[in-house]
């Protein structure tokens, strides 16, 4: 594979991550923002499953720090969740690629719930706030995107021959 094709692949992966980041930055009302899906995390999960040699923990760290800076959260909070999630994906990516979409969805929701658990811990430590049920709704809303996002990104990857 030529260097030009490899670079184009990197640019297209970065493009999808930037679009996901924009979705995460869209301004919403206070009530709606608590239900906001973490599109960036599931796009990172897809790329880490599909191309673990290109998207890994360092990509997750950088994307998480961008999210932390934009959302004014504790610096490193999203980065920690993204790195741990991509670490789990790096271990199990071969298994996750061959299981059914519904089993993949269950795996993704576990990673998303882990992220919310970290968020709840940080909120409890820094603000002494106990999250309500709306706080826990975001992973379930996010996981509804997965069955449509996965084939979309797979077709995107295959049509542009990203490998």
Automatic annotation (TrEMBL):
Pfam families: MreD (PF04093). It is a multi-pass membrane protein. Its main location: membrane. InterPro entries: Cell_shape_determining_MreD, MreD_proteobac. GO terms for cellular component: plasma membrane. It is found in: Cell inner membrane; Cell membrane. The keyword Glycoprotein does not apply. GO terms for biological process: regulation of cell shape. The chain crosses the membrane at residues 12-28, 40-63, 75-93, 105-130, 136-153. Keywords: Cell inner membrane, Cell membrane, Cell shape, Membrane, Transmembrane, Transmembrane helix. NCBIfam families: shape_MreD. Involved in formation of the rod shape of the cell. May also contribute to regulation of formation of penicillin-binding proteins. Belongs to the MreD family. PANTHER family: ROD SHAPE-DETERMINING PROTEIN MRED (PTHR37484:SF1). This is Rod shape-determining protein MreD. It comes from Solemya velum gill symbiont. The lineage of its organism: Bacteria, Pseudomonadati, Pseudomonadota, Gammaproteobacteria, sulfur-oxidizing symbionts.
């Amino acid at each position: 594979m030529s260097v030009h094709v490899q670079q184009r692949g990197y640019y297209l992966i970065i493009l999808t991550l930037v679009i996901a980041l924009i979705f995460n930055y869209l301004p919403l009302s206070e009530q709606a923002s608590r239900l906001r899906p973490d599109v960036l995390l599931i796009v990172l999960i897809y790329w880490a499953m599909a191309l673990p040699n290109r998207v890994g923990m360092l990509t997750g760290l950088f994307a998480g720090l961008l999210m932390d800076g934009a959302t004014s959260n504790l610096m490193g909070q999203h980065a920690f969740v993204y790195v741990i999630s991509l670490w789990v994906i790096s271990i199990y990516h071969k298994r996750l690629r061959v299981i059914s979409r519904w089993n993949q969805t269950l795996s993704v929701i576990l990673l998303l719930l882990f992220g919310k658990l970290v968020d709840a811990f940080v909120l409890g430590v820094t603000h002494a706030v106990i999250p309500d049920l709306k706080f826990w709704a975001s992973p379930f809303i996010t996981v509804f995107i997965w069955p449509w996002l996965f084939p979309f990104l797979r077709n995107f990857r295959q049509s542009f021959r990203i490998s």
